[in-house]
């Protein structure tokens, strides 16, 4: 048996051993020999994307659904730079990916040859490596044969543990460098541990004692819990304790929304009536994996006092004002759930608080006529089924979706912190790939505004190329409505092309309605028309790709969007007047 | 009359005064108030693009055709990062643009608020400014009221003079800062001058004396001549001197290819028979605006001895081995042309060398049957007309196009140095905008492979949205043929989706063939079918957008591509064996 393995194969075997079965990316002349090695690893497959930004979005979407790191391969300069915004979003929202960049052979790099994709003044091939510094946890630049194997292992482990992007730069000649095959017999240890077990013990006993003392404890489960592998633990925690439980706009779906203990999406002042009161009046908020950005806190109107807060984060934990830096929540959550499970009689199950009204008057009960933001989201909620993967694009979809009630075990992707429009069209590809790996029986449902769709539309072609069957809702509201809500509602710059014919989109990208194909494109301008589409059996059964274009008014904004915009304006006005 | 003008308006008035009439970009919530100011400057218009990478490509294409700087507006983080690869290409190939990035208000920046589009660890809003450092000449970060006007002026001048991208970062609250309106009465001085006129005089007298002494002088006019405003001067130089004149792959079209003194595209060993000999045997090569990258020098096989070379570049000039750093060719070329014009009797007009055969045997004379790389480019050359703007995409189109004979006054865009595929689809939008400003009577012709088209296809929708009427050739050769030529011809990763229906593309994006529209989509699998399309009057007259899909074999590569790949392989083999 061979005692060595070529570096390219070593790298992809390590990746396969993590459970990742598909590599996303775009070929380029400096990564071709590396890509050859994918085919030498049984069970590993290539998914070619139309462009690198979309591929990065897809990798992000994959990571959110699969849990194991996504792998993105691009080529030197043109490819890696095109991917940058997508990788930055994954960094901001902790959707870890290993970004592998094919580079020119070391000899050419050292010669500073004026190859295509290089730049003056000095043709330094490492210039792009430096540009990516802020959007990654770490990187390996494989120039030295002696350290390559350790470097690959180190970067993979760091990526899995941090759930942040990490880069591996592979010069073309390095692909064939022989590495010690025996290393592969020892799987990488990627478990997250807190080095100081004394502090961990201390925090756990504090938390358990606070839970016992509390009269009205609640769970506020935020998105970094999901990103860092705590989804199932959180669901178990809510199930065991039956504490009133809340999600946030980013973590929606983490709590079973049909469970008696589910109390809604907490987003500061931008919440359904009763939700903010429920959280903010609690004497113990168990806040898991918080991400405290503007649109995930109702424009910074989250109001939880430190003395009522247990904050369990990836970078630190804090119990009622006492902060523990560098402590990761995951091992702690695991042990707390274990403790509560084993001694479920020993602690006080507090009475659930009064449930807030989850369908406030702001929502419409219409059954006919034009389709309004106040109507559509709850209706789509009723269309969703158990196990669905649901993606809502930045913009009105993302601000509307919290109005929906999600089915059990829904998985939800939205990007309300990084907020790069067009993101979900790429992320949906990654979700489809991940769902395939998970043998996921649910449907994948994409809800995207037409302005965002125009950004990244070609990846719809990739769904069709690989035979994926998402259900796509295109919210056609004639421009960037989120921007109209913010500024310049009638300004020309908030328009997009109004003459695209979305009914022809699937056909253009190769999904044939004729020849027995059942890919359908439909449109709805009224509630009645929408009902007809939603009740069409072909549309909902997930057997073929489907499109429903929903026409909506361009000045109709979800109430959550208008409210947040008002809050932000008010704050800016105050700040400006107080500073002047 | 008001003595002040809001900063946003000041900025756009400065831009309008340069001759730029259109602003390209994508809106985002941090640039909306800035965009409002476009409408306050008479004669300035907004062109909204589908995404920022395409917008950057468009800005690059605009700059190449218009000469005056393109202006790209994006939003904080998501927008500016998406544009990065496009801006980098403009940096590499000197297609100057002013990239204006809208940022959060200064107060929010200073507070390090966790706004959307920010990043951990510390929400530093300047992090993206640092990332772009290598791809710009200079930048202004408008944080201090006192220096804003000077900073804007400084950056604009630097952009025009360097023909490189320059950034202006505009926090949202800065748009309304009042600036001194009187400054606008003095136009910016953007002329390129050499500070040391003694050295300039010296170089000019050296060059003139070398020209007089030379027995077989030739002109080798490269692309940076065009980028730095020397196109017309170069044409005049060739016309006055009648010296045998050559272009390069990047500068093709700079010399009138129907003129008696035109001798072909010089690209080292990857040239038509006789071309390399003509240049390399000359005792005086007047090399203007060189860009010596791999694919612009036949894979580094350009062989011109220093003792026969006059190198007139943007960063230095060199006369027969004597180098003058920091001297710009443009003022020198201007004076040389003036001198030669005024004393055209006083210098020796040398006899033109024997003209190389511009249609070597490698080209096909077929008149029927399948469409081959060896046939198509000369045929398309005959389709081109005087004043056409021609774009060829990276890949086979770019390596094939030098086989065509261009008509007089053709303007040519290709990106064989930066080589980012998908580039021309965006650049074509910019060329269309620039042609409109120039009241350009010629047609705009885009030739793009289908793999590249898939990268950036949505911008076809922008042509249609704004009523532009390019002629589009889609070379459908079933994948990335340039990569097949380089490595892994049969590998799956070199495939793209084969089921897109390009015949439906224009319709999807809103160009209607019915209702009296004359936008046609046609396809050709044979020479006969191609002839029918090319001879269709609607197709060629430029009155409506047109598409011709040309089907070609996926393993059929232009001879220039195969030859360069062979040269590169041979060199790598030698280098590897000598280093081991």
Automatic annotation (TrEMBL), chains A, B:
Which reaction(s) does its UniProt entry say it catalyses?
a 2-oxocarboxylate + H(+) = an aldehyde + CO2
Q: Which InterPro entries match?
A: DHS-like_NAD/FAD-binding_dom, PDC/IPDC-like, THDP-binding, Thiamin_PyroP_enz_cen_dom, Thiamin_PyroP_enz_TPP-bd_dom, TPP_enzyme_TPP-bd, TPP_PDC_IPDC, TPP_PYR_PDC_IPDC-like
Kindly provide the name given to this protein in its UniProt entry: Pyruvate decarboxylase
Its domain of life reads: Eukaryota
- Family, as annotated: Belongs to the TPP enzyme family.
Gene3D superfamilies this protein is in? 3.40.50.970, TPP-binding domain
Keywords in alphabetical order: Decarboxylase, Lyase, Magnesium, Metal-binding, Thiamine pyrophosphate
Residue ranges of the region described as Disordered = 344-363
Q: Which residues form the signal peptide?
A: none
Does the record carry Lipid metabolism as a key word? Answer: no
Enzyme class, UniProt record, top EC level: lyase
**Any one GO CC term of the record:** cytosol
Molecular function GO labels? magnesium ion binding; pyruvate decarboxylase activity; thiamine pyrophosphate binding
> Which cofactors, if any, are listed as required?
Mg(2+); thiamine diphosphate
Write down the species: Capronia epimyces CBS 606.96
């Amino acid at each position: 048996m061979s005692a060595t393995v070529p570096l390219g194969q070593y790298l992809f075997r390590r990746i396969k051993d993590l459970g990742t079965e598909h590599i996303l990316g775009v070929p380029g002349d400096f990564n071709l020999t590396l890509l050859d090695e994918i085919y030498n690893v049984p069970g590993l497959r290539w998914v070619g994307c139309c462009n690198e930004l979309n591929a990065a979005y897809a990798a992000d979407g994959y990571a959110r659904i699969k849990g194991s790191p996504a792998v993105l391969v691009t080529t030197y300069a043109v490819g890696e730079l095109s991917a940058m915004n997508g990788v930055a979003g994954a960094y901001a929202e902790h959707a870890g990916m290993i970004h592998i960049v094919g580079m020119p052979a070391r000899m050419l790099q050292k010669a500073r040859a004026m190859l295509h994709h290089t730049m003056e003044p000095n043709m330094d091939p490492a210039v792009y490596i430096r540009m990516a510094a802020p959007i990654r946890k770490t990187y390996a630049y494989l120039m030295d044969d002696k350290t390559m194997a350790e470097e690959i292992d180190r970067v993979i482990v760091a990526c899995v543990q941090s759930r942040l992007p990490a880069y591996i730069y592979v010069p073309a000649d390095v692909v064939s460098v022989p590495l010690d095959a025996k290393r592969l017999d020892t799987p990488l240890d990627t478990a997250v541990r807190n080095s100081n077990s004394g502090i961990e013990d201390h925090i756990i006993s504090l938390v358990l004692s606070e839970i016992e003392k509390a009269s009205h404890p609640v769970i506020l489960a935020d998105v970094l819990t999901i990103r860092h592998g705590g989804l199932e633990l959180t669901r178990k925690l809510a199930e065991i304790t039956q504490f009133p439980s809340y999600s946030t706009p980013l973590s929606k779906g983490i709590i079973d929304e049909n469970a008696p203990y589910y109390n809604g999406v907490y987003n500061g002042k931008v919440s359904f009536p009763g939700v903010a009161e429920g959280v903010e009046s609690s004497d113990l908020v168990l806040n898991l994996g918080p991400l405290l950005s503007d649109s995930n806190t109702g424009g910074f109107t989250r109001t939880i006092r430190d003395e009522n807060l247990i904050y369990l984060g990836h970078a630190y934990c804090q119990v009622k004002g006492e902060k523990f830096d560098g402590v990761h929540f995951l091992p702690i959550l695991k042990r707390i759930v274990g403790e509560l499970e084993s001694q479920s009689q020993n602690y006080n199950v507090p009475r659930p608080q009064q449930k807030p009204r989850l369908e406030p008057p702001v929502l419409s009960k219409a059954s006919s006529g034009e389709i309004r933001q106040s109507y559509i989201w709850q209706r789509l909620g009723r269309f969703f089924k158990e196990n669905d993967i649901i993606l809502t694009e930045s913009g009105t979809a993302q601000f509307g979706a919290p109005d929906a009630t999600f089915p059990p075990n829904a998985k939800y992707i939205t990007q309300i912190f990084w907020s790069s429009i067009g993101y979900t069209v790429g992320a949906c590809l990654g979700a489809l790939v991940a769902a395939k790996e998970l043998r996921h029986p649910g449907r994948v449902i994409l809800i995207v505004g037409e302005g965002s769709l125009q950004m990244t539309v070609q990846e719809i072609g990739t769904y069709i190329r690989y035979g994926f069957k998402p259900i796509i809702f295109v919210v056609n509201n004639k421009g960037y409505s989120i921007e109209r809500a913010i500024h310049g509602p009638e300004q020309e710059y908030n328009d997009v092309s109004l003459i695209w014919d979305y009914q022809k989109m699937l056909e253009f990208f190769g999904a044939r309605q004729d020849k027995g194909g059942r890919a359908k494109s439909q449109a709805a301008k009224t509630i009645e028309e929408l009902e007809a589409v939603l009740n069409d059996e072909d549309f909902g059964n997930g057997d073929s790709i489907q499109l429903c274009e929903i026409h909506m008014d361009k000045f109709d904004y979800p109430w959550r969007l208008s409210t947040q915009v008002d809050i932000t304006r008010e704050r800016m006005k105050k700040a400006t007047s107080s500073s002047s």
